[in-house]
Write a structure and sequence with these properties.
The chain is of the alpha/beta class. It folds into two domains: about 110 residues, Aspartate Aminotransferase, domain 1; about 250 residues, Type I PLP-dependent aspartate aminotransferase-like (Major domain) (Aspartate Aminotransferase, domain 2, 3-Layer(aba) Sandwich). It has eleven helices and twelve strands. The chain has a seven-stranded mixed sheet, with helices on both faces. A three-stranded antiparallel sheet has the order 9-12-11, with helices on one face. Helix 2 runs parallel beside helix 8, helix 3 packs parallel to helix 4 and helix 9 runs parallel beside helix 11. The N terminus is likely disordered.
Length: about 375
């Protein structure tokens, strides 16, 4: 019998209603809403309407546990190594408040990181915390060697990005982990622009902390994020900012003692936002079906097509030199990016701007015609 032809790759575009009226090229700011996320939010609202607080104990509690487990699986992490938060800033605060800066007051960041990383420790400058900002030589990446030179025996932690939001350049996280650990420092990686659009394995990367969330490539929207903590660190983590979800026996309601969970939940704080949790569970269904490798394959193809088309049209994308160091964030230099983004929006094309650049970010639900339309609109405006 003849061998059956392989099934064509599934087209998920129809699951994202925004494409009925727009060309959406801004996933690195906010992932598009899927019908599955909307359905999961409706499920939560139905439970809230019909059962009220009684849904907590047999349904909503299980949803929180499910999300922790699925986040752990997404980044190749051990069970129990995920703490849920409302956003990355809240997640970072629990780590920043767990460290002892008396012997190691230095924190190393880079000039290309999203500034919420630096802000966590700049806010602690009055406590003697010293921030070292490693500069980028080209506005695209930061050499591992430059970061390594900034790390010494007084460094508590290196906090930097897996993918730079400013350029889409991919960092060699394992090399950074080696550099930090050689000097006894910890490594925290902001994976907001990485998890979802490329494979991540926290154990292989040898990171101490890894954070990400639903806002962008994980299709969960606002209000849900996570912090991974290496299991070996759990006994040492006692944040000075805490909440009742960090208590191992939280329903004892004892105001006299704080006994933290034995796992990463000791880094949690208050009650999670269940609307956001449910939206994220819906988004993760699609991410898991496709798989990180397939998503990376699709987005790499779209990214290279966008870069090639932009160059052919006379634009000069600011991206990493090698394709395997690039992700689906393409920065196009522009004299008035805010005006350019408005022109694109008037043509039904959703993008974003950053200083001096129009930022375009295709994802697996895009097709080449999407970014070709954007490039045509930009060049026609000139």
């Amino acid at each position: 019998m003849p061998t059956a032809a392989p099934a064509p790759p599934r087209d998920y575009r129809a699951e994202f209603p925004i494409f009925r009226r727009s060309i959406y090229l801004n996933s690195c700011s906010l992932g598009a809403l899927s019908m599955r996320s909307r359905a999961k939010v409706d499920e939560h609202l139905d439970l809230w309407e019909t059962r009220g607080a009684s849904a907590w104990y047999d349904t909503w509690w299980a949803a929180l546990a499910e999300l922790r487990t699925r986040y752990a699986r997404l980044i190749g992490a051990a069970e129990g190594s995920i703490a849920l938060h409302a956003n990355i800033s809240a997640a970072l605060a629990t780590v920043a408040e767990s460290l002892d800066y008396r012997r190691r007051p230095k924190v190393v960041v880079t000039s290309l990181d999203f500034p919420t990383l630096a802000y966590q420790w700049l806010a602690r400058a009055g406590e003697g915390v010293e921030i070292v900002v490693v500069e980028s030589p080209d506005g695209i990446g930061v050499p591992v060697e430059a970061i390594a030179r900034a790390i010494d025996d007084r460094t508590a932690i290196v906090a930097t990005s897996h993918v730079f939001f400013t350029s889409g350049a991919l960092q060699d996280v394992r090399a950074l982990a080696d550099a930090a650990h050689r000097r006894g420092a910890l490594l925290l990686v902001d994976g907001y622009q990485a998890a979802g659009q490329l494979p991540v394995n926290a154990r292989t990367l040898d990171v101490d902390f890894y954070c990400s969330g639903g806002l962008k490539w994980l299709l969960g929207g606002t209000g849900v994020a996570f912090m991974y903590a290496r299991p070996e660190l759990w006994p040492t983590l006692a944040p000075r900012a805490s909440g009742w979800f960090a208590h191992r026996d939280q329903f004892r309601f004892d105001p006299r003692t704080l006994e933290l969970h034995d796992d990463a939940r000791r880094l949690e704080a208050g009650t999670p936002g269940l609307l956001s949790v449910y939206a994220q569970l819906g988004g993760l269904e699609i991410i898991e079906e496709l798989g990180a490798r397939e998503i990376r394959r699709r987005t790499m193809a779209l990214t290279e097509d966008l870069i090639e088309g932009a160059r052919a049209a006379g634009l000069r994308p600011k991206v990493a030199t090698a394709p395997d160091e690039r992700t689906a964030i393409v920065m196009l230099p522009n004299a008035d990016p805010a005006a350019a983004v408005r022109r694109l929006a008037s043509a039904g094309i959703v993008t974003d701007s950053r200083p001096g650049h129009v930022r375009i970010s295709p994802y697996f639900y895009n097709v080449p015609d999407d970014h070709r339309a954007a490039v045509e609109c930009l060049t026609r405006a000139h």
